[in-house]
Amino acid sequence: MTAVVAAQGLGKKYGRRWALSDLTLEVPAGRVVGLVGPNGAGKTTLLSLACGQIAPTSGTITVLGGTPAAGPAQLAKVGYVAQDTPLYPGLSIADHLRLGARLNPTWDHELARRRVERLGLDPARRAGRLSGGQRAQLALTLGIAKRPELLILDEPVSALDPLARREFMRGLMEAVADQELSVVFSSHLVSDLERTCDHLIVLAGSRLRISGDAEELLATHHRLTGPRRDPGRLPADQHVVSASHTDRQSTLIVRTTAPILDPAWTVSQVSLEDLVLAYMDTPPPAAAPRPVLEIQR
């Protein structure tokens, strides 16, 4: 099956700063993908490239097998909910649904109407008078009612209180189940990712740190605790992701598919949060010098 997002050597430069560098990955279809990283890691840049809002400086990106935003047919395949859930404050909820129907050839009016009714929203109420949670739910409704193949969400719940965040995530997962959506979901809140995501992408320092199925990543990462030692002395098949030390003890997070047989180590599982923080806290390796292939416009 075609990857929903595929990037090869992808980079985006603003002035002298690379917001995203040499990114190569494939996002499989039918997954809920968590995209995580610190501020400035390149998450929003990657999502903006996938939506076709900006063009790459180097490399290539395809979405659902095509060039992002390359015409009405391609645009119809992708739903997008931006970080600030932009709506028209002077328009009513009903106006937004009518606008969605005008702009999207695959618009599902009944789906949108049922969601608004179930959420207890008054169709006559203007968007500018909605709470943050209600605005997020309306933006999600607009995103899924166009019946996209891929739904992209850029930190849509970052400003919501816990109750509104839970309701938003519940609505998202209902849509995933009902419509068999592929989702790429950017968030700072690892707890949301643990409950919903089955694939993970971690960015740090504008570069890809790790990408893969969440279950496989958790199965191949381990916490080792034992007497203080130099991580460089570990077997070659145990890749050290992060290390911390006290005077007498070392705690390492390692990636390996082989059994850990050294009896000096106490081996324990890592959580998704442990894994994400380990990769975010570790500086990415320096890129090898290479010429930049500028996109001709």
UniProtKB/TrEMBL annotation:
The keyword Transport applies. Residues 5-230 form the ABC transporter domain. Pfam families: ABC_tran (PF00005). It comes from the Bacteria. Keywords: ATP-binding, Nucleotide-binding, Transport. InterPro entries: AAA+_ATPase, ABC_transporter-like_ATP-bd, ABC_Transporter_VariousFunc, P-loop_NTPase. One of its GO terms (molecular function) is ATP binding. The keyword Membrane does not apply. CDD domains: ABC_DR_subfamily_A. This is ABC transporter ATP-binding protein.
